[in-house]
Structures are given as structure tokens and as C-alpha cells.
Amino acid sequence: MRLSVTLSMPLTGLLFALWLISTPALALLPPNLQVQANLKRATVPACPKETASGLTITLDEGHLSGRLASLSLDLTCSRSQPDPHDTQTVDPADALSLLLTLPAIDFEIETLTLHLPEGVISGPAKLHHQQQHLDVLWQTDAGATQLSIMPKQSGWRWRGELPGHLLTPSLRQPVQLSGGWQPEQPFTLQVAGSLPAPLAGNWQLALNAELRQGQWQLSPRSQLTVDRLQWKNLTLKQLKLVPQGDLQLDKPWQARLSWQQGQWQQQRLPAAALQLRGEQNNPLRGTVLLELAPDLQLRGNWRYGLGDSGLNKGGLGGSSQLQGSNELALEIPTQSWSAVSVWSWLDSWLNLPVGLAPQAGQLRLSLSAPHLLDNKQPLMVQAELQDGQFGYRDMLAEQVAAKLKLLWSQKGLQSVGPQALSIAKLEIGVPITDINAALRWHQQGPWLSGLTAQALGGQLALSPMALTSKPSGELHASDISLEQILSYANVDGLTGSGQLHGRLPFAYDGGISVTQGRAHSDQGWISYKANQQLAATGEANISLGLTLGLLSDLRYDQLSATISMARTGEATVDTRLQGRAPVMGKMHPVNFNYHHQENLLQLLASLRFAQDLSEQLPARFQGESK
């Protein structure tokens, strides 16, 4: 026997038809009976978006199956829970969802449409009943979706897995989600997944949204957390993104992104925070404020959107097709800070040289990143130091200026074009002027090259060296005036003339040390005129008298010296002179060796003290008139 019923009626008619083939009624029917019920369209008056069409339920030899041409569900529709003691309540049929109305059998659905707070998803699906909940196996353009939906107090609870594309085209991996909604209660959703490339790490999103005046708003209880984020050579830990106040995407919004610690290559990074704001008419662009320290903040603009290839306009529905990738652009316009403030912040987490610090100057910085999420797109950084003044212990560098232009890409941090460094004057006890150099940045870090300077009437040049916490290199000197060196030695009666050339291998490790430095000079002279007391002693001491005689007019053909200095400043200088000197009133060939030990750092410090004292004493104490 075959029985076919075709209906086109509201939901109450569907309930009656389903009763005919319900489980209690099946026991009264012959086992070989075939029954088919058809419903053209069913609606839920309380939720206009919920509809069903093309419903077919078939009973064939005791087995029930169902098909639907379309089923539209609205997870945001508010329904009333009927009170059995209230005779004035609305008809329960008008308040129930179609999911609760369908019989407890499996359904094949040609098009299942789900209305979410923001957007619509649709595609073919299978609906399977499991006691008190429904399992939905759903095929969308973005991939397969599995959802378990459970009625709860006139609302819903759900959990499952869905393609990341349904949230944003940047997510390539499936995400796990759970959540719920009840009338007059916040909409909750917990989602977890992997960060999109080139980022690495896992994220967890907890949303808490409320419907106010027909608009969904995220409450401050919502947050996005990432335990560990990796991007290129950067690692950040314990990231948290939370709204600042209620957040509504069609209105200006503000959120705070913070992290507790980080690392760049082998360098530790301090905690910091970002303040993000969205524009009035476009929530996917706005401003950013990086808070490094109370007096050190970085302001810029950001934009998130599709690239030139774009995404077809189809919302989250089945017609959407991914044709491009989302771009996150960041632009930091040029802005200026005090060099003292920047150095103080760096010194709080970097191993900077002890005693080195700026005393004045302005640092200007700008940044441009057209696509932060694409490893092939570089990040451009430009920095400039103006009117800098640096002190190291009691030494002083004046009018320091530098320019840097860097690219951060897959190859690491690299310099672009000339990177200039200049210092007008470096006072270490002996003035060094006109210092000029070039800076370069490689994957291993910054390098200093081409440094030249003027000192003691000659030129200085520094070999290329890496700027690390313990730098080392070699200083080359040429045409250094022996006369000026002896004048700074401040020994009464000692004069000389000649041009010195040499090299000083040095290293810095808590202090500057020199190992086996060498100097030489050709064709010069040294003269020492002893005072009366020393000259009188020389008349009684033949050896001393001979030495004083040689030094009265020593004309050398070759001067050579070896120089070493410990980190404490204790220096040893061994000098050898070959030439001619007066002996018994006539010039004779001589070889003169001299060994000298002195703390050069203390000597330079005393020279700096004498200079400072002469500058600070009132003019009348120097025998000058004002």
C-alpha cells in the first residue's frame, strides 16, 4: 500500500502531517506500508528568516528518511519560551525553530542557509539527529563544516569545526568553535585555530556580543589571545587583544593589543602595547599608537583589506570565491623623540655599553609596510639622529648626526643606500674632529665602515667592524704630528718633530684594550733640555750625562714603537730610535731604546680635566680682562 500526502500550509499543518508518521503511529501501520508526505513551504512567523521548502518524508518498510530542497535557519532570532501556567502566552508553534519542528530523522538538504550576526553561509548539507542535539555535515565553498546544535532554554548551544575561510580569507586551516545564545542573553562564541602564514602560532578567540537596538556589539569581555606568535625573526609571547569599551563594527572602535615579552633573533624584547582605532565609515582602517614607555609613543595608520585581485562580493554565502589575499598595511609617518628618552628605554632591556649615554639630540623615525602578512613584501624603516651629543664616562662627542634606511624582509634586516654617520668633535683629552663614517646593516647586525677623522695634525681611519656589545677593530693613523703628541705629554723641555704612522688593534669588553699596536716614523728629531737641577746631576753621573747629551738633539732616521694597553688603561710603550746624536760635540750614529709605562686613561682624563678647568675658571683668574 502507498500513501502520498502533499501540503502547503503554516507550521501547524506540518506538525499534524508529521504526527501521522510519528513513532507511536508506526506501530499501528502494516510493516510493508509505504507512506510519503510532501510539504511545499513552511515558515516560523516569529522568525521571518526561517523557512523550509520542498520537504519530503518517506516511510518505506519501517524506515524513515527525509529530504529538503532548502532550509533557512536564523541563530540570532529571539524566541519566547512558553510558560505552561500562562494561558495568554503565544502559540508555541510560532516560537519554535524549524530545527525543533523537524522529526527526529536524518535529512538530505540541497541548500542549508545559516543566518549569523554578521553574514550568511549556505551550501548542501546533511542533518543527523542524535538524541537531544543535531549534527550538521555541511559543504560550503570554503570547505566542509561540522556543527552540533543543541536547543537550550529557547536558545542554542553549538560546537564543531569549520573552514577558517568562513571567518577571514587569510585563515587556511580549519578552526574549532563553540558557543551559545539565549533570548535576552549575550551571544557567545569561542574559536581556536592556527595563525595565517607568514605568522606562526595558535590563537583563541572568545566573543561576547549583545543585541542592542537591532545592532550587535562586542563587549569588553571579548578577547583574542595568542600564547606565542612568530613572524620572521620576531617572537612575541602572551599576546592579548581586547576591546576598549563596547565595540560595534559600523562605528568607531578602539582595542588594545599587549604582549608580556618577546625576542628578536637572540635579543630579548620588553613588554609593550598597541592602541588600535577604527574609522567612522570604515572599520577596517584606522590609527595605531605603540606605547613603548610613558614618554615614548609611536603613532601611525593601518589598513586591512583585499589586494588588487579582490574577493567577489557575496558575503559569507555560497557564492563567495576567494581570488585574492587580505593585506595588512602599516604606515608610521615621520615623528621625533628625545634621544635621551629613546636611549633610556633601550638601556632598560639592551646590554648597552656602561657609561655611554646621550646628553642631547632628536631622533626621527618613519616606517612603511604595504603588506605585513606577505614575507615577500619588505618593511621599510628610516631613522635619523640630529644634533646629538653623547658622553662616555667624561669624554664627549658633539654634533652627532646619523641616517639609516633599512629593509626588513625574508633576508633579514638590510641597509639600503648610503647610511651616514658624522661627529663634529670628539673630546677624549686630545680633540678628534671631522669624524665621518658609513653604517651598514646585515643579517648579523650593524656594521661601521669607512670611518675617517682628523687628530693631532694627521688622519685616523678605522677598519670595518661589527657594532656588537663587544666590538673590536683596528685603528690606522697617518701623518700624526710628533710635536703635538709631545706637547700633550706636558714634559718641560721636551720637543720634537716628525710624522707618525701606525695601527692599533683594539677591543672593547667593559673597557678598551690595545694589543701589539705599532707605530713608526722616518726622518725627525727629538730634543730634551734638562732643567738646572737635572743637568747638575748629569754632570756628576756619566751615564745620565751621556743620555741627556744624546737627547739634546737626537735626529732619527727611523722611529719604531710597540704599544699595548689593558682595559684599566695601564699602557706599555717600547720605543727604538735609530739616527744621529751629539757625542763629545760631534754627531755620531746611535741606537736609542726607551721603555715607558703609564696609565693612558688617567693621562687623558687629566688632560680633559685641565681643559675643563681652563674653560670654567673666570677670566680674571687667568690674567685676562672681561
Radius of gyration: 42 Å
Beta-strand content estimate: over 45%
Helix content: 10-25%
Using DSSP, what is the number of strands? Answer: 38
Which overall shape is indicated by the principal axes computed on the Cα atoms?
Answer: rod-shaped
Low-confidence regions: 1-12, 80-96, 308-324, 616-626
Pfam families: YdbH-like (PF11739)
Organism: Oceanisphaera ostreae
Protein name: YdbH domain-containing protein
Task: Spell out the key features of this protein.
mainly beta, YdbH domain-containing protein, 38-stranded mixed sheet, 9 helices, 626 residues, YdbH, disordered N terminus, disordered C terminus
What does this entry look like structurally?
The protein is mainly beta and 626 residues long. Helix content is 12%, strand content 56%. It has a 38-stranded mixed β-sheet that branches. Helix 7 (532-540) packs across helix 8. The radius of gyration is 42 Å and the shape is rod-shaped. This is YdbH domain-containing protein. Pfam families: YdbH-like (PF11739). InterPro entries: YdbH.
